[in-house]
Amino acid sequence: MVLASLGFSVTVLAVALAPSVWFAGLGLVAVGASSVLFLSTGNSTLQLASDAAMRGRVMALWSVAFLGSTTIGGPAVGWVAQHAGARWALAVGSAAALVAAIIGAFALDWLPVRRRPDRSTGTGQPTARSRRRAG
After folding, report:
1. For 107-132, how does the pLDDT look when each residue is reduced to its tens digit (9 = 90+)?
2. Residues contacting 55, CB < 8 A, separation 6+
3. Residue 104: pLDDT band with limits 50, 70, 90
4. Closest by alpha carbon to 93, among 3, 2, 14, 19?
């Protein structure tokens, strides 16, 4: 998800700096692809990492957090667009995604390694992230 957020940030910044509307249009295709990558990775990760009994609640919180942030960010970026222009509004959105990617990268290093129970033996098996850290 960190890489998807970083990719989103870079593609939005590229659209903000595009010299013409045609280049911006091509850049928006990459913005859409990175957005879909982020959303599908986030949804899949949350569903696979949560217990079956809690999965609906976890996804409800994900939806509230994701959709709820629009009510704060939308008017703020709209104000920037009104007073500074669309390029600056895109640059602010790019900066927000970059900050999210940086926070996510630091969080990966600080979070404890989570072990998933092995359904066949009941012992903990390391997750992909903990295997990557160990090796």
Report:
1. 877 766 665 555 555 455 555 555 45
2. 47
3. confident
4. 14
Q: Quick one: DSSP state of residue 19?
A: S
In contact, 100 and 11? CB cutoff 8 Å: no
Burial (CB count within 10 angstroms: exposed 0-12, middle 13-18, buried 19+), residue 34: buried
For 132, the token pair is: 């990557």
* Residue 21 token pair: 């509307």
The whole-angstrom separation of Cα 22 and Cα 19 is: 8
CA distance 113 to 130: 6
Please provide the DSSP assignment of 68-132 as one string.
HHHHHHHHHHHHHHHHH-HHHHHHHHHHHHHHHHHHHHHHHHHSPPPEEEPTTT--EEE-HHHHH
Q: Which residue has the tokens 């957005």?
A: 35
**CA pseudo-torsion sign 102, 104, 108, 110:** positive
Both tokens of 78, joined, read 């709209």
Q: Which whole number is the average pLDDT over 25-49? A: 92
